[in-house]
Design a protein that fits this description.
Largest sheet: 7 strands, mixed
CATH superfamily: TPP-binding domain
Distance between the termini: 48 Å
Helix content: 25-40%
Number of domains: 1
Structural class: alpha/beta
Number of strands: 7
Radius of gyration: 16 Å
Strand order of the largest sheet: 2-1-7-6-5-3-4
Strand content: 5-15%
CATH class: Alpha Beta
Number of helices: 6
C-alpha cells in the first residue's frame, strides 16, 4: 500500500484541522513557496495568487500588524503595493491588528477590531483571503482555524518563512513581488 501525501485544501475540515507540519508539510527554501502543502517555484505561486484574487467572488486582504505599523523602512512601499493589489481585484481590506482567536465567541459587528479570522471570514462570506504582515506564531493557529471551519482559500504572504497552514504561502515577500501579482491581476481582469 502506498502512503498518500496530505493535501491542504479549503475546508471545512472539522472542528480542529490537523496541523500541517504534523502531516508532513515542510517550509520551502528561498525562491520556492507552498501550494496545497507542496513546494512549488515562487513564480508559479505568484501567478496562482493573482488568478485566485482575480477570480474570487468576495476577495479580502487582511493586513496584520507587521504591515500596519511603521516598524521599518520597507513597510510603507509594501503597504502601498498591498493597497494597489486589493484595489486591482476589488478586495475588501480587513485590518487584523490582533488575529488571535477569542473564545468562546465575538460579535464582529460590535468589536472594535474584529479579530477572530474564522468568524470574520464567515460573516463577510469571503471566498479568497490574503493575509500579509502576520506574526508566524499567531498566523499558524488562525489559518488552521479558518481551514477547519470555512471553505475560504487562504493565502499568506510572509516576510520570512512560508506559513504551512495557508493553502498557498509565499516567503520573503516584498513590494516588488506584490506588484508582480497586481500586474497579473490587471491582465486577468481586462
Amino acid at each position: 500500500m502506498t502512503e498518500q501525501r496530505y493535501k491542504l485544501t479549503t475546508g471545512p475540515e472539522g472542528y480542529l484541522a490537523p496541523a500541517a507540519a504534523l502531516m508532513g508539510v515542510v517550509s520551502p527554501n528561498a525562491g520556492y513557496a507552498l501550494s496545497g502543502g507542496d513546494i512549488v517555484p515562487e513564480a508559479e505561486a505568484l501567478a496562482i495568487v493573482a488568478e485566485k484574487l482575480a477570480s474570487a467572488k468576495t476577495p479580502a486582504v487582511c493586513p496584520g500588524p507587521l504591515l500596519m505599523w511603521q516598524w521599518s523602512d520597507d513597510v510603507s512601499p509594501k503597504a502601498a503595493a498591498v493597497r494597489a493589489m486589493a484595489e486591482a481585484c476589488g478586495a475588501k481590506i480587513l485590518p487584523m491588528p490582533d488575529y488571535r482567536a477569542k473564545s468562546p465567541r465575538i460579535n464582529p459587528e460590535i468589536e472594535i477590531n474584529p479579530n477572530h479570522p474564522g468568524l470574520t471570514i464567515q460573516h463577510n462570506n469571503i471566498d479568497v483571503c490574503l493575509f500579509v504582515g502576520m506574526h508566524l506564531h499567531f498566523a499558524n493557529m488562525a489559518l488552521r482555524l479558518i481551514r477547519g471551519a470555512t471553505n475560504c482559500y487562504t493565502i499568506a504572504l510572509s516576510d520570512t518563512a512560508a506559513i504551512d497552514e495557508a493553502i498557498l504561502s509565499i516567503r520573503d515577500i516584498d513590494a516588488v513581488k506584490i506588484e508582480i501579482i497586481t500586474k497579473r491581476i490587471k491582465e486577468l481582469i481586462k
